[in-house]
Design a protein that fits this description.
single chain; 68 residues; three-stranded antiparallel sheet; 6 strands; elongated
Length: 68
């Protein structure tokens, strides 16, 4: 499994012009042919792979994986 992740800041829409929030993106290559992409902006996102592994990305750019 390979994963790359990048923290960044995104201005929420619509919001005050001086308001920013944590955001992160991750692209995960899992197994031979599975690719998962996660975008977290302000709240955690998760995705489950074909074999049941649950990937969770939080806006502060922390990626976790839990196997069944």
């Amino acid at each position: 499994m390979t994963a790359c992740q990048a923290p960044y800041y995104r201005r929420p829409q619509p919001a005050a012009s001086d308001s920013w929030t944590h955001a992160a993106q991750a692209r995960i290559h899992h197994g031979k042919a599975e690719e998962i992409q996660l975008d977290a902006c302000g709240e955690a996102r998760d995705a489950t792979s074909a074999i049941g592994t649950v990937f969770t990305l939080i806006p502060e750019a922390r990626l976790t994986a839990k196997q069944p």
